[in-house]
Amino acid sequence: MKPQLTILAISLALAGCGGSGGSDTSASAAPTYTVSGTITAQNIDLQSQVCADINQNYMCDSGEPSSTANANGEFSITSTKKSILSVPLLAQVDTGIAANSTSGSASSYAYIAAPGLQKNAGNEINGISSLLAGYVADGLTVTEANSKLKAQLAKSGISISGDIQDDLSASELASLEQNIVSTIKAFKHSNRAFMLAQLSAKFDKSAADYVNGVLTNEEVVAFANFLEGELKAATALNDTGVIRYFSDIDDTQDVAEPQSSFPGQDAEYGFDKTELNTNTGNGFQFAKLDANGQVLADDAAEWSCVLDQRSGLIWESKTDDENSIQHKDRLLALELPGVVTPYDQDVDLATCKTKGDQVCTTQDYVEHINSINLCGKSDWRLPTFHEFYNLLDFGETETNSDGKAYGLTYKYFPHQTAGIDYTSYIGSVWNQSIIYNQYSNTAVDGGFYYNEIGTLGGDRGYISSLEIYSGDVDSSDNYDSYQFPARLVSLQGK
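The structure corresponding to this sequence follows.
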């Protein structure tokens, strides 16, 4: 792994060379990229705004590349951001409900979506593409989303040959398409990614038949409300884990009692306050699971996974056995199907090369863990940035052999990555946090920026922006970028 300059260091170096005073701006003009397609949803205004959802919050924000479709629903978006080809495409739909009304709607607009397919032309946005986008928002690849949706349709006797994204307007999907759009318009909660993912996963479990016939407004609203309840139950945040207080009397050691001279400290609030008073561990609510996904006694000596009962997520347990593919320090190159291809030199430095196996990238690892049905699950994936950050325990006092406090609750996660002696590797594991809002004119062509989360000692929760290389980087002119371990996640009940 090579040391990499920070953005500040790069800026200082450029300043020392005279900055931009002698640059030829015409020669360095950024290239442009275009993505086009058609809105084909029923019963909506086809002349809607369409955007490339750069920050992937499933709404069209000011500044995101966008255009307005014509009367036939045709749109074309041009931008200097190449990411418009790989991020979701959204069409803004008027819900017919005024913003801030007594209905509780946070916006008068809803958004139907299509997953980023790396296609310059021929993209299609409607209710069926929104189901695919919902699965992708939950961490699946487009190929996996196709398989999931086909299995759901098969329950209703519908068989689609080929990829569903190539046949989104099939006549047998017309009722489903209209019902999905109606449900999206009925959502009240602003967590659109979660709501869309839940709709994709559970529309076939509704009491109403989403496939055969158009639903009444009452049926649509009832199911939308059910999904709102799922969100409330499954996405609550953990607390920080901080249960001790700073004291001005003895600043060498935190104390257990609130300090009147320093009011308003973290430990006085939220679930952590309850934990201090009752000693029940309410800052986090974890449960140990066996290899079949069954809950074990809290004092079990062996377990395979950990259920976060507050967020509804199931986390993979690691091992201290260097011969195990699940070893806590097994290094992997980053691979996100359809988004990031692995960089050859990162693959060459992965643990697989010394162990003689084929699990070299994060996608290899995902496929392996799914193939063994760890804890009875087959939907394992890399966590999102926020999912992993919610797991951090800033109050953990157990330390590793270097005296650095662990970032995850040691009782449930005893085997945590130790990291290596690089400033930028502070006990980190891979997540999905590719970012598109950072730019440097010294960035390597084919590279991208990534938010690394520190998990050890004073670096717990510290975020570093790293340049990661993809398979598009010329390996003859560049060294490796980074390799990290992975701790996968699954969703309870899926």
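Residues 1-27, 99-107, 275-280 have pLDDT under 50 and may be disordered.
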